Amino acid sequence: MDIITPKRIRITLKTIRAITFISLLLLILFSSIVLSIVLYAKWQGPPSLTVPQSTIIYASDGAKIGELHNGQKRYWVSLDDISDSVLQATIAIEDRSFYDHHGFDYKRIAGAALADLKAMSKVQGASTITQQYARNLFLQHEKTWQRKATEALYTIRLEQNYSKDEILEGYLNTIYYGHGVYGIEAAANYYFGKSARQLSLAEAAMLAGIPKGPTLYSPYANQEKAKERQKLILKTMEENGYITTKQLNQAVHENLVYLTRAEEAQKSIAPYFQDAMMSSLVDKLQIDEQTIQTKGLKIYTTLDASMQKIAEDIVENSIEDKSEIQAGFVAIDPKTGYVKALIGGRDYGKSPFNRATQAKRQPGSTIKPLLYYEAINNGFTPSTEMMSEPTSFAYDDGMATYKPSNYNDYYANDFITMLQAIALSDNIYAVKTHIFLGMEMLVKAGEQFGLQTKIKEVPSAALGTSPVRLIDIVNAYGMLENNGNKIEPTFVTKVEDRNGEVIYQADKNNKQVLNEQAAFVTTHMMTGMFDTKLNDYTSVTGHSIADSLTRDYAGKSGTTSTDSWMIGFSPQLVAGVWTGYDKGKKIELVQEKSYAKTIWAQFMEKALEDQSVKSFRPPDGVTGVYINPASGKLATEECPTKRLTYYIEGTEPTEYCSEHVPDVNEDGANVHKEKKEGWLKFFKWWD
Questions:
Q1: Which residue intervals of 143-196 are DSSP H helices?
Q2: Pick from 538, 383, 393: which is nearest to 462 by CA?
Q3: Protein transport among the record's keywords (predicted)?
Q4: How far apart are CA 464 and CA 455, in angstroms?
Q5: Residue 275: which of 136, 475, 469, 68 has the closest Cα?
Q6: pLDDT at residue number 137
Q7: Which of 304, 377, 275 is CA-nearest to residue 572?
Q8: DSSP structure class, residue 490
Q9: Which residues touch 642 (CB under 8 Å, ≥6 apart)?
Q10: Which pLDDT tens digit goes with each residue over 347-370?
Q11: Most CB contacts within 10 A, which of 496, 509, 534, 645?
Q12: What percent of the chain has pLDDT over 70?
């Protein structure tokens, strides 16, 4: 047993006194620091409001295409002129303890820190309304400790020198509501054509949800996400006692009528491009839209203003005014991923929803080049033959069947080559290839080619039933043209701050991710859609525009009952067109079915008319031979049709075509005529 001696008691007491003394010193020091900061903030007085500086946007040639200043969309109103529902919705979702804290909500800060620690990333914010207002007043955008410290000082200065109502009023008059609109009065006018005082509960909850992410929660940008956030805010208001359950239900089901003045919504040049550029920049710089729009930045974009004008004119002139069909268009430099032109719809003033970057639609047969790339990379060749005939496919261990059909139910009822299959868009060949490779291979291809939506592992995926974004699949075609280098849709090359310092530079280092030889072989097969020499049991899919093309192109069209696609490229440019109805209405008029191909052909010819004519150049490891497209064998002098076709070295055909040799026996029968035996006859899952 330890014996407590007087000496040990004296040591313990000395330790306790020392700890107590040090603790008191630290407490006094901390209190002095806090008091000094508070007194300094009080002495500094209220922070002055700063005038936002215009951010200027430039095209790729240095010409100015836009200026973000927002002076015409910023109005200051008092709290008395703002609906109580706006005040309650804002406090409920942004800072429910606003009237109780002194600028910092320590409980929320602790909770957010714990959530971030658990997720090992930034998943939850804890900024109060005062802190956000301070951030609106602070000019610098860098995420540094100095900025955080300055924002904290601004927060204290606001709390020291303004009442809570004054802070809330300032916040609601400076917060960003998307589309260049600042302040609740301008937002109420822009979205609903009324004043902030007249907003209903449902309208107030909708607007209160936008500042968290204007490109995500604006009802013009994403109606579904905006509605989800409105419901969350109404539920939070109910939980905080601002509204009843009955009021919540009424607000959720209220039909909101939006008002957008075309002259307010329309940007002078490439409005859809500018919106997409802004969303991209928010992701790249990890800063909010308000900072980008008002801090005097210089944004250098990839836009080619002349190509943009060509695209806009062609889309406008190609589609009848009375038609309700919509269109999306993207043109990209296949070497860099730079977006040269973009159209997200026929009228930005009526609908800012971007059908080129936001809409997800079934791509139809435009997915097939990704499938055939995988096939070429796994042993297939342009000469590989399979039977084109009505076929039922069993999958899921025989528990399900899938019976696709060709366009207009046309079939060869014979063997066709892969070269013919892609030119004629034979669906049976595509599904057979898909199943033979293993359906996971197309899923993998989608990831390799950078599609942001996952392809489903089902037989119909070979015919494009898994939705994609237009900009993603156009970018994927660009990777085929550049022989397999990874590119991403890029809108901004450089950003400078107001002092001329570069704060963002696009990365130009593109990594090889595809097999170079397989990518080229696929590309060259895709030129077949315009080659009428490949006509067989039906015409090549590009026959209607082939005569209007004056240079080498590779491409693929796609059709579903509700979507029409045309994507193709030259060595210098890749472009894609989607046309269809927003609500999934079927495309039934013959003229409307041709819009995508017509727009694409006219754009490519006009956009490239001043550029040199270039051909697709085969890389090392690829060899070209003349074949008879019908048999896939080496062509002879007797073959009526010969086509130069490329193969990965070592896979090219070695047998000569004998179908047209006039060699007969004594009975007059052609001794070379043979019944084709397919190498995939062992499949047991089709009839």
A1: 145-161, 164-174, 184-192
A2: 393
A3: no
A4: 9
A5: 68
A6: 72
A7: 304
A8: B
A9: 626, 627, 628, 635
A10: 998 899 999 999 999 999 999 999
A11: 645
A12: 83
As beta bridge partners, residue 393 has 402
DSSP 194: S
Give the H/E segment covering residue 623: strand 622-628
Kindly report the backbone phi and psi dihedral angles of residue 347, in degrees, each rounded to the nearest multiple of 5, phi listed first: -150, 105
Residues 353 and 365 sit within 8 Å (Cβ to Cβ): no
55 falls in which pLDDT band (50, 70, 90)?
confident
pLDDT at 160: 79
Alpha-carbon distance values, 191 to 81, 196, 233, 377, 526 (Å): 17, 11, 18, 52, 46
Other beta carbons within 10 Å of 139: 15
* Ordered DSSP codes for 331-360: EE-TTT-BEEEEE--S-TTT----TTTT--
Burial of 4 (0-12, 13-18, 19+ CB in 10 A): exposed
| Alpha carbon distance 633, 654 (integer Å) | 7
Rounded Cα gap, residues 492 and 136, in angstroms: 25
Q: Provide the sign of the torsion angle of the four alpha carbons 427, 431, 437, 440, taken in this order.
A: positive
**β partners of residue 563:** 580
| 186, amino acid identity | A
How many of the other CB atoms lie within 10 Å of CB of 517? 23
Task: Name all domains of the chain by residue range, CATH numbers in brackets.
Answer: 55-294 (1.10.3810.10), 329-607 (3.40.710.10)
663 CB-near residues (< 8 Å, 6+ apart)? 670, 671, 672
Q: How far apart are CA 40 and CA 49, in angstroms?
A: 19
For tokens 């014996």, name the residue: 3
**Residue 565 φ then ψ, to 5°:** -130, 150
Q: Which has the closest alpha carbon to 451: 429, 411, 478?
A: 478
**CA 296 to centroid of chain Cα atoms:** 26
Q: Which of 441, 520, 530, 452 is nearest to 480 (CA)?
A: 520
Question: Is the separation of the CB atoms in 354 and 344 below 8 Å?
Answer: yes
Phi-psi group of 70: left, alpha or beta (phi > 0 → left; psi -120 to 50 → alpha; rest → beta): left
> Whole-angstrom Cα distance, residue 273 to residue 459?
35
Positions marked active-site: 94, 365
DSSP class of residue 436?
A: H
In 380-469, which ranges are continuous DSSP H helix? 418-424, 427-437, 440-448
412 and 536 in contact (C-beta within 8 Å)?
yes
- Mean pLDDT along residues 509-515: 90
In order of 29, 32, 34, the CA distances from 23 in angstroms are: 10, 14, 16
Q: How many CB atoms lie within 10 A of CB 257?
A: 9
Q: How far, in whole angstroms, is CA 192 from its chain's centroid?
A: 28
Q: Which residue shows structure tokens 């062509």?
A: 635
CA distance 301 to 374: 34
Helix, strand, coil share (%) of the chain residues, nearest 5: 45, 15, 45
Rg (CA), the chain: 32
The helix (run of H) or strand (run of E) holding residue 469 is none
CA 1/CA 282 separation, integer angstroms: 68
Residue 588: Cβ within 10 Å count: 8
